[in-house]
Design brief:
Layout lengths: L2 E2 L1 H6 L2 E11 L6 H4 L8 E17 L4 E6 L6 E4 L10 H10 L1 E2 L1 E7 L9 H19 L8 H15 L7 H8 L2 E6 L8 E5 L3 H7 L3 E5 L6 H14 L3 H19 L3 H18 L6 H13 L2 E4 L7 E5 L2 H15 L6 E2 L11
Parallel strand pairs: 1-6, 4-7
Antiparallel strand pairs: 2-3, 3-7, 3-8, 4-5, 8-9, 10-12, 10-13, 11-12
């Protein structure tokens, strides 16, 4: 049953936000890879950033839905009966369709560049679901969703719209915040993941001094890249490398938990060495140079998300990170649109 929320929003517009993230071990959260290898404990690690995606829902024309986002050239508006699920905002139209609301417009703003490989689209999605859940309660059509319910719906919407090439770690980082190890077990009848918190608030503040983030000046598209990697994994061509990378990321998680930043750097460097073999298309020329500079200084670095543009992040002892900032900044001055992204670890998830 469809419902106009125009009048509700005229009196009570809704605002929500969620954090972007950096990650290691990404792609192991995709079900096609994680489920067959469940006995070998597939994992990813991610850290939420204070680069937040902010979303506002306000009233709009009866029977219509409008979406606009910073960094996109045009807005999209459609009748509720004609919402496209394959447009640039198709994922968000699908979420609105799920709730059956119309008479609303959605505005999205992000502190991170668009398509930067920082999970911004998933952060926007869980922010939207959270807002629509609040609207659901305000309209008397149901209760507000819990964070776990938001994560569940967000993952299944994104996985469905992407035809099964989506993982869950981006939505998870946006929902819960902090620094976490995620163990993926999609075959379990209960939760598809186990969340292990690696750092408390004090540890998160310390980690903020030990990592550095840079945008390469080029956006990325993760869906096409992920599909290629999953295909190679399923064929067996790259599976051994993926399993080796998984063991390294498990060790990386332990090093972060122990706040052993040198060991964390060494393990991230080792994971990147494996990634160069099994996912060479993830490295743009500028990303390759940034990672090489970080490793030369004694830090570990990798692309964020699926790479092929987007961001690169590094971890290491505080003094080396300070030196790396100078070196990276000098390189990026000559790259159009590229820059250091000042950021810290974000303990908060959805708000």
């Amino acid at each position: 049953m469809l419902l106009s929320v125009k009048k509700i929003l005229e009196h009570s517009p809704i605002k929500t936000s969620a954090p972007c993230r950096i990650d290691a071990g990404g792609t192991w959260d995709i079900k096609a890879m994680a489920l067959p290898m469940q006995k070998l404990r597939p994992v990813t690690v991610n850290a939420a950033l204070n680069l937040r995606v902010r979303l506002a829902i306000t009233s709009y024309r009866e029977g219509w839905v409008k979406i606009s986002s910073q960094g996109f050239s045009r807005d999209e508006m459609y009748r509720i009966s004609e919402l496209p699920f394959s447009s640039p905002f198709g994922l968000y139209f699908a979420a609105i369709s799920y709730f059956g609301f119309h008479g609303l417009q959605v505005k999205i703003e992000s502190a991170a560049p668009p398509k930067a490989g920082l999970g911004g689209s998933s952060a926007a999605l869980v922010s939207l679901i959270s807002a629509l859940s609040k609207l659901r309660a305000a309209s008397g059509t149901g209760k507000r969703f819990t964070p776990k319910q938001i994560l569940h719906l967000g993952y299944h919407l994104e996985d469905g719209i992407s035809l099964g090439n989506c993982g869950m770690q981006d939505q998870a980082a946006a929902t819960f915040g902090g620094v976490n190890l995620w163990i993926w077990h999609y075959g379990n009848p209960g939760s598809p993941y186990t969340k292990e918190t690696l750092l408390d608030i004090r540890g998160q503040k310390e980690m903020s001094k030990h990592f550095l983030l840079a945008y390469t000046g080029k956006s990325h598209v993760s869906l096409r890249t992920n599909r290629s990697w999953v295909t190679d994994f399923l064929s067996g061509r790259t599976r051994r490398g993926w399993l080796e990378a998984n063991e390294l990321v498990t060790g990386f998680a332990h090093a972060v938990h122990e706040k052993n930043w040198k060991q964390a750097a060494d393990l991230l460097k080792a994971e990147m060495a494996v990634r160069r073999k099994i996912t060479p298309d993830a490295l743009s020329p500028i990303a390759d140079r940034l990672i090489g500079l970080a490793e030369h200084i004694g830090c570990g670095a990798r692309f964020s998300g699926a790479g092929a543009g987007g961001c690169v992040w590094a971890i290491g002892p505080e003094g080396r990170i300070k030196n790396l900032r100078i070196v990276w900044d000098d390189l990026l001055k000559s790259v159009p649109g590229a820059s250091i992204l000042d950021s810290e670890i974000e303990p908060r998830g959805l708000e």
